[in-house]
Design a protein that fits this description.
Layout (H helix, E strand, L loop, with lengths): L9 H11 L7 H7 L4 E5 L2 E4 L4 E4 L2 H4 L8 H13 L12 H13 L4 E7 L2 H18 L7 E5 L8 H6 L3 H4 L9 E4 L4 H4 L5 H19 L4 E6 L15 H11 L3 E5 L13 H4 L6 E4 L11 E6 H8 L14 H16 L2 H18 L7 E7 L2 E6 L15 H12 L2 E2 L1 E3 L2 E4 L7 H24 L7
Parallel strand pairs: 3-13, 5-6, 5-7, 7-8, 8-9
Antiparallel strand pairs: 1-2, 2-3, 4-10, 9-10, 11-12, 12-15, 14-15
Helix pairs in contact: 1-2, 4-14, 5-14, 10-11, 15-17, 16-17
Bound molecules: pyridoxal-5'-phosphate (PLP).
Pyridoxal-5'-phosphate binds next to helix 6.
Length: about 475
Amino acid sequence: MNMIANHLPTAELQALDAAHHLHPFTAGDELKAKGARVITQARGITLTDSDGKEMMDGMAGLWCVNIGYGRDELAEAAAAQMKQLPYYNTFFQTTHVPAISLAKQLADLAPGTLNHTFFASSGSEANDTNIRLVRHYWAAQGKPEKQVIISRGNSYHGSSMGSASLGGMEPMHAQGGLPIAGIEHIGQPDWYGEGGDMDPDEFGLLRARELEHKIAELGEDKVAAFIAEPIQGAGGVIIPPASYWPEIQRICDAHEILLIADEVICGFGRTGNWFGIETLDIRPDMMTIAKGVTSGYVPLGGSMVTDAVAEVLNGAGDFNHGYTYSGHPVSCAVALENLRIIAEEGLVAHVRDTAAPHLAKKWGALADHPMVGEARSIGLMASLALSPDKTARAVFDVPAGTVGLRCREASFDLGLVMRHVGDRMVISPPLVISEAEIDTLVERAWQAIDRAYGWARSEGLIKGD
Ligand SMILES: *Cc1c(COP(=O)(O)O)cnc(C)c1O
């Protein structure tokens, strides 16, 4: 029926791809030399490439395919919506049924009074909205000086100029003159990597209090908001010490600043609750959503705000901001169907009661490997740190990511998509993963680590060898 199913031979696809397609986060000449992996189809948690090789998708795409691949209901919801009303905008006092229904559904699902959504098509767009929204909010209250947004090193909030500035990824800032003005960063709560001899909870408090120091340094009258992922995802699935979030909450409550929880990864079941803020007991004023809201089948993002924030915004005249596709009817229709499936199939409870405890046990046992310094998970997000000397939490004598990349390549060869962030290995599988599939995933992860270990030993990188 289509040219996609009956595709060209892999080598020809790769050559065309290298000739005409500029990839995100990819070095073009390396791609040319190696050829991209061409993914042609997927079902459940399994991807198939253009050579027919199957791989377990330990990353749910890019942390987004929460309900797994191949759910015809979403395709049917999209087709029905395209036939009825394929597009209309939500500017200038206009709306449509899918946007109304989704905004209401999100209000019902979100905790507290997060009852209002401004729609976008991605997490990046939603976080750009947040920058303008918090500044507009304070200006509307007669405090236009409150402009600065505080974020954290090694956080990820998207790739547009604004959202990448919020993010704390130095290689991203190095290209294009980032961060933009009015964004400040404090340290991340990464005890394993940066906590030294401190007790984790002591370190968690220290890092949280950097927020209070930064507010004092800048002046409370200059600070608009603090933004953070409940659990840093792209930074390496960094689970903060238990002391961290309560202290951040205390500081935000004590000072007049808005707390923005970036739920783009943690939202929609990933941590065993609908939202990460429930798992970590956070009460934000605003929340960024994307990814799992549609399970990645179509693009959709949004900024959710509390009744109190919405009241100020609603009294402040026009918000001179919006995207052609804010509240796109097809995206909203697909999101509604996706949320119906998550709810009716009990996927949040499946994560909380079955998959997450099983993963915690199995993944945690990877810490027995001689090259694994820590292996932790929360819900269905997990990470481990590769180390040449695990008791010392040491790093390798080669550039960060060298051994991690070896491990990732071995993992692909073994039929598991696992990602590396430096020398941390991370997974975030679809929420529908079964216990037996978790067993397979962890077995392959162990084998991949073992292959990287063999290589590291042969290179003399392991301490005490
Ligand atoms: C992926 C991600 C974003 C950006 O979302 P896009 O849809 O890629 O623009 C923002 N925040 C977090 C926490 C993310 O993981």
